[in-house]
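Operator note (shift B, R.M.): manual run for diacylglycerol O-acyltransferase requested after the automated queue skipped it. Running by hand, logging everything below so the morning shift can see what happened. Input copied straight from the record, untouched. If output looks odd, do not overwrite the archive copy; leave it for review.
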Amino acid sequence: MPPKRTQMTSVDRSWLRMDTPSNPMMIAAVLVFDKPIPISRLKLILNERFLRFQRFRQRIIDEGDKVYWQDDPLFDIDNHLHRIALPGKAAKAELQALTSDLNSTSLDLRHPLWQIHYIDNYQGGCALLIRIHHCIADGISLVRVLLSLTDKTPEPGSRRIAPRKVPEQPASSAVSRLLHRALDTTEAATGQARLFMQSVRAQPNYPLKLATAATGVATDLLKLGLSPFEPKTCLKSPLSGRKQVAWAEPLDLVEVKACAKALGGTVNDILLCATTGALHRHFKASKEVIPDCGIRVAVPFNLRPLNQPIETLGNQFGLVLVCLPVEIADPIMCFRQVQENMNRLKQSYQAQVTYSLLDLFGRGPDILERRALDLLSNKASAVLTNVPGPREPVYLAGSKLVQPMFWVPQSGNIGIGISIFSYAGTVQFGITVDKAIHADPNAVMNYFHESFKALSHAALAGRQQSSTRQVS
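Run finished. Output pasted below as returned.
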């Protein structure tokens, strides 16, 4: 009996095609724990909670015009879980060096596309270095999958998560499949027409709203295509494929929220402003001319409801281009510009447009996607992710997770990835930089802290001055 296979979706296929030697399409994570985790217990949890998703047992079969997921008949968890130790003092610098090395190495397409390295004796505990290919799922989904391995208490008791049963599909001929597809399309069209008439009866101006939305989508597509390329700076260089990874000491989320409240903005606005300030400081330290029109970063925008259980994997997100005003030195003025840029984007359809483009490229020839990817990657200097994590500490096999870091891959000729992740009252900030780009990742981490402190001090000072004026 041949191994089970399912066809890869066009969007997931797009992410598979983006894989290059200079930019492997991997989502990477470093999870640091306060105590060692017994390997036998870690394997048990992976078998019960991670491998319940069949995708992690499947390899890719590429037949040119179609790509399939197929069960790996030789699957063995020991091919994916490796136990290693760091050299020397086994400190942060050594872990960053190992992460940089593995993030520069592509996954083996002959096997299911994930690897976990268990790192012994790291700062009295242990660390997990996890790499998963982007074609399996988007970053938000995979973060939720990894967090599903954890518990809210050190000793939750044993529990087993039964794998989701997928009903078997009966074999059918090509004619039968075509008829089913036509029937599905007809039913969908009928349903849409019925929904349209109901909406018209409920809201007489519904057709106008629909036309306005369609106009907005067309406008955003046109804006995306006509937007200028990024200015030539030290952040845009031919890539080497060697990554350098660093992460900062976490910020206190209470301080970030206090800063946001003082300025009348969101936590996301504050963190984007701190990122902008860090890049401004990098340009100044490099003695490079700062572009007067700012730079753009590509930000993944989740299109999957966060309260929807992760039953199936895959990619369900779009990308938006966010302008960071790195030319503005004053922290308050910089914040106001970031806030305005974000408010404008929230009213756009850019995420839906880019998702549709990925779906389109995944259905077409490879050369079309390559050219479109080159075009889009020339419109951003970095990829930036901001993912919310658990509000309380979590535990894996009884060990407390003390610091989590996640990175999404960069595509095309983008060589910088910036990651923001909130966890248990902290904000984690990390970066990955291609070695050909003249930027010290650890220095950028320090600039991020400096930028946030400057913004926080200015915000709180402004609030105090406002209170003084009201009293007088």
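Quick read of the result: The radius of gyration is 24 Å. The chain has three domains: 5-147, 176-223, 229-471.
Leaving this for review. - R.M.
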